[in-house]
Every structure is written in structure tokens, then in C-alpha cells.
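Sanity check

After download, print the first record. It should look like this:
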Amino acid sequence: MNNNHNHHSTWDTLDLYFIIGFCLLLFIYVLAAVFANHKNRKWPLYRTILWILGILCAAISLVGPIANRAHFDFTFHMIGHLLLGMLSPLLMVLAAPISLMMKALSVTASRRLSRVLRSWPIRTISDPIASSLLNIGGLWILYLTDLYSLMHQNVFLHLIIHIHVFLAGYLFTSSMISFDPNPHKASFTYRACVLISALASHGILSKLIYANPPASVSKVQAEAGAMLMYYGGDLIDLVLIYFLCLEWYKATRPRAITIPT
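Expected C-alpha cells:
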């Protein structure tokens, strides 16, 4: 009984850490928006709303009824995966947090941030191929090994995997669409090719889960979760494709030529 109580209190503590983390992310962004507006560098309200929605998606996936059901129901786990690893990163990338920081910080601090973004470790992991390997490759390891069942028994492993899922999703999304300063400046063709490969890999993985459920997952739950991963992932990816194509179009459309009279 005591062990069970300790187990629950450990998970409750983890929930508390998640809530504190989300509140901090929200506070820092809103504070930066206030600073930017105070400097007359107007920051659009819709971007702040996107950031709040992104944090809400991540919070719903990690704390509350969906997160609790995800421990024993694979379908709910997959809802959490779509929210934390795909929808939340997309909304937060569209909120352009780095651009906001550049506006809110002093010139010296902005230059320092810019140098960090251009450093070789950031350039390496933000490359489309590297970020897609971290993102999709991580999911292959999670679902095709014992890692999935181990994650629900070990709080630390649960924390590390969920942080990885979110950060890898964010890196992957930001490597595809440039709403923030992009350290690698990958060509549109390169990004499009990597995106198509990543989508195919995500689709193949969902079919493998459908056919061969992970350890400790029933066939019925695996089939429902895999279908959710396949079709839900496609819906979010459509939005990503739209923004990549829009950015590509804006960058390559012919400029209007004015003829002097």
C-alpha cells in the first residue's frame, strides 16, 4: 500500500513540474511581448494566442485526464503524442518565439542569441535530416522496442521521453518552416524532400504498430491508436505542407516591375 502511495506521489510531483514549466514558458513569452510592445516593436496578438494554444496542447497531453488514461490506454497515449509531438510544436513555431526574443532583448543580448543560433551544434541539430532523424527515428525506437512499456513504469524515463518528443517535434517543424531566424538556410527542395520522407516514415510506423502492437498493448487499442496516428498525423502535416508551400511561393514569385514614366 505504501509503495503504491509513493508511486502516485512521484507521478503527482512530475505533474507539478510540468505545470510549473508550462507556466514559466507562458510567463516568459507574454513578458517578452510586453517588452517588445513597450519598445514600439509591435508584436501581433495572434502570435501570443498561438503560443498559449501550443502550451495548452502540450499541457493537456501531459497533465490531466488524457495523460492519466494514456498510462493504460494506447489510444489516449496516441492522442497525447499528436498533441505533444505535432500540434503543440506547430502552434509554437508559428508563434515565432525567437523573433520575439530578438525584439524584446537589448541589441547586445540579441547578437549573443544570434551567435548561439549560428553555432555548429544548433546548426547541426536544426538541419532537416538531423531533426527528422531525432523526431521520427525516436518514435521508431519508442514503439518498436520495450521502451514504450518501460516508460510507464519509470518516472524519469517518462519525463525524458516526453521532453524528447516535444523538442524533436519542435526542431523538426522549425527546420521545415522559417517563421523564426533559421540557422541552416536549407533550400526549399531539400526541405520538401526530407518532409516527404519523414511523412512516409511516420505512415509506415503507424502501419507497423497496427500489424504488430508494442509490448503490453492489446490488438484493439493498437489498431485504434495506429489509425489515429496515421490520419491525425496527416491532418497536422497538411498544415505544415501548406506553410512550407506558402513560404516557397513567397520566396520565388516574380517581383512586380515598375516602369518609370
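If your output differs, re-run the checksum step. Summary of this record's structure: The chain has a mean pLDDT of 87.
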